[in-house]
Amino acid sequence: MKSTIENTVEFVKGKLEGAEAGHDWYHIERVWKLSKKIAVTEDCNLEVVELSAMLHDIADPKFHNGDETIAPKIAREFLEAQHVHEDVIEKVLFIIKNISFKNRGEVPAELPVELKIVQDADRIDAIGAIGIGRTFNFGGFKNNPMYDPEIQPSLNMTKDQYKKSNGTTINHFYEKLLLLKDLMNTTKGKELAQERHDYMLGFLDQFFKEWNVD
Predict the structure, then answer these.
(1) In this structure, are 48 and 143 located in the same domain?
(2) Helix axes of 46-55 and 86-98: crossing angle, nearest 10 degrees
(3) Residues 14 and 93 in one domain
(4) pLDDT tens digits for the chain (214 residues)?
(5) How many Å apart are CA 25 and CA 173, to the nearest integer?
(6) Where a domain ends, among 65, 85, 102?
(7) Residues 6 or more apart from 112 whose CB is under 8 A from it?
(8) What's the Cα-to-Cα distance from 93 to each of 75, 118, 122, rounded to whole Å?
(9) Does residue 38 fall inside a structural domain?
(10) Which CATH number does the domain housing residue 5 bear?
């Protein structure tokens, strides 16, 4: 008989078949691996960490007209069918609802360590070389300009403004990606984020040199 984790892998792969490349199974797999890497350095419930990592983007609101209720509903139905304990389900749903960058102003002051771990993993996958690739992929998906010197980054956006933003791909680095290093929760997360952050700074330096034909 397959384990709950194995069944979750199959379920998520099936649900995300054909998903936008920055939010597909491979994104989930990387976040899952990063979460386990961080989890070994923390005192946590590994089952909650693994299930949350795999289900956190099961129905990303940005691909469902901003509806944030779909993912928790799908996750609950799946976990109940797997006979997962209600306490674990509640913890997983809490993480799904509160992991997002855009929701950071609405989360409780005290967060469970499992959320801190999966959130760090998800944010780490948004930066570095992978983050650069994902950002340009999503910008192309939305047909956003790659860069426009006349359009300045919109800093300190509200949640609603962030959800509706259609700025340039390069501006997204300043509006989100370069902010993530300082939002890490765990010691391991901070360590992993620093290297990727530095890589992005080098990329941006080279990008502007080439853009300006220096």
Answers:
(1) no
(2) 50
(3) yes
(4) 789 999 999 999 999 998 888 889 999 999 999 999 999 999 999 999 999 999 999 977 676 666 788 999 999 999 999 999 999 999 999 999 999 886 666 667 789 999 999 999 999 999 999 999 999 999 999 999 999 999 999 887 665 665 556 689 999 999 999 999 999 999 999 999 999 999 999 999 999 999 999 7
(5) 23
(6) 102
(7) 91, 94, 95
(8) 7, 12, 16
(9) yes
(10) 1.10.472.50
The amino acid present at 167, given as its one-letter code, is: G
Distance CA 137, CA 174 (A): 17
Cα distance between residue 155 and residue 148, in whole Å: 16
User: Amino acid letter at 180?
Assistant: L
113 vs 44: CA distance, rounded Å = 6
As a dihedral over the C-alpha atoms of residue 153, residue 21, residue 201, residue 148, rounded to 10 degrees, the angle is: -30
